[in-house]
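Example record

Each entry pairs one chain with its bound ligand, thiamine diphosphate.
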Amino acid sequence: MEKKELQACKIHSAKVRLDVLKMLKWRRYGHLGGAMSIIELLSVLYNRHLRHDAKNPNWEDRDYLVLSKGHAGPALYATLAEQGYFDKDMLFTLNEGGTKLPSHPDKTKTPGVDATTGSLGQGTSLAAGLGYTLRLEHSGQKVYLIAGDGELNEGQCWEAFQFIASHKLNEVIVFIDENKRQLDGWTENIIRQFDIAEKMRAFGFYTVRCDGSDEEAIDKAIEEVKGVKDQAVCVVMNTIKGQGSPYWEALVDNHAPKFNAEADAATDEDIARIEAWLKENGGL
Ligand SMILES: Cc1ncc(C[n+]2csc(CCOP(=O)(O)OP(=O)(O)O)c2C)c(N)n1
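Structure tokens for the complex follow.
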């Protein structure tokens, strides 16, 4: 990717991170940790790979994003707002009664959301079915599926992965956000994952690993798997839950924290730091 494009992706990530922090601080609680770890991926997808049109969210030839770890909705909403699907003011209705931005994505409510998710595991089957339909239609469209590492505790994921691998369904690009934590702690203390990339390979996927905080590395990984013919593909991203905030990264219990005075102060520091970076880099 050219320098200019990389910088645009980094600015996009910074703006989205800023909005996620602001909206959750304003809301006083929310799914922070797992939202922060997919911000760079969403930036690379929406700026470089996903075929989409914010002016025409139901464009028939679009690619699909399935956020199977649906609780990371705030990252998707901030991304969609940054892309122009709706006004940024709407971000500050998150989780309110009657909002178009419920805590988990609902395709009947939000422009740009194609998959209703939140019950972990289900998005993987949805993506498999969607990908199979696109295959039958020879449409050339793609499905970008984002699953969490804790989510892999759901047997349904592995049923869907068997289907995707068996049909060499590379219409679906599987991303696993390996942030090593889940709702109630470290994944290895709950159900040990062993080596996720090796597991995906054993299931039949062409699998690459990348640093999920590095837009360039993510883009490279996607380019690599897009070049694979005749095999299912997967990108395992090494990330940190709470990525991009020293305070939230260090707090192990950052899944859906409530804000208090300490969190407010730390988040204000994050906001100031990100705004300063954006100003320096022409993003504000
Ligand atoms: C079927 C189901 N069981 C339990 C939950 C509650 N839950 C929400 S998020 C979560 C942890 C998910 O961990 P992971 O996929 O690693 O997400 P991340 O750490 O990236 O936020 C759980 C258990 C759920 N949403 N769906």
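The first strand starts at residue 64 and ends at 67.
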